[in-house]
Amino acid sequence: MSTSVRRPSFTPPPRVHPLALWAPLAVAVALAVSFASAVAAAPGPNARAPQQQTAEPALPAPTLTAQPAAAAVELRWTEMPGAARYELWLWKNEETGWQLVSDTLTGAAFTHTETTPGATCYYAVRALDDAGEPVSAWSQNVPATIPAVSADQPQLSASTPTPTATSTPAPRQTRSESTAAAPQLTAQPAAGAVELRWPEIPGAARY
Q1: CATH code of the domain covering residue 93
Q2: Which domain holds residue 128?
Q3: Which residue has the higher pLDDT, 72 or 52?
Q4: What DSSP assignment string belongs to 120-168?
Q5: How much is the pTM?
Q6: What's the rounded Cα separation, in Å, for the pair 123 and 101?
Q7: If you ran DSSP here, which 8-state letter would residue 59 be given?
Q8: pLDDT tens, residue by residue, 176-187
């Protein structure tokens, strides 16, 4: 008598298409690229100054400082060896974005006078060669807040007041009239001085 053995049933797992395994990764990459593009295009002082050099700069970024003053900003940066001139940019707000202040600065200092009281500006500078090509990286975006004009602050007048002439006071007379004649005084200019002489008056104790 033969005995049959019943094999257990086996259901194969569903087949997964290879592209389905890459779908979550593709979505993540797309989101990362979209976020990076949005950040790069976002306006504001945190973005780098407008023109990015394609080649690696030969010099490091200059160190920029901004010192607000009365209706101006004193800007100074480190000199770059071999730089022919410097390029300075300004950021005021998102509407105007980055604006070129000057690209012909030969020194390492500049006073920016086109300012607005109470406003905060950002500055960035880099070095250029004789051909106008960048030879250094951009400096950090340095902020500067212009002092606001207080309503209680006295305003300076446009015209300068003319000093008034004062009269020379005459020597005071003594109460009693002197019986001696007035001495004859002479003045002789000398090198850096004046020689004063008068005749002696008999009976005078001092002059």
Answers
A1: 2.60.40.10
A2: 64-145
A3: 72
A4: EEEEEEEEE-TTS-B-BPPPP-EEEEPPPPPTTSPPPPSSPPPPPP-PP
A5: 0.51
A6: 9
A7: B
A8: 555 667 888 887
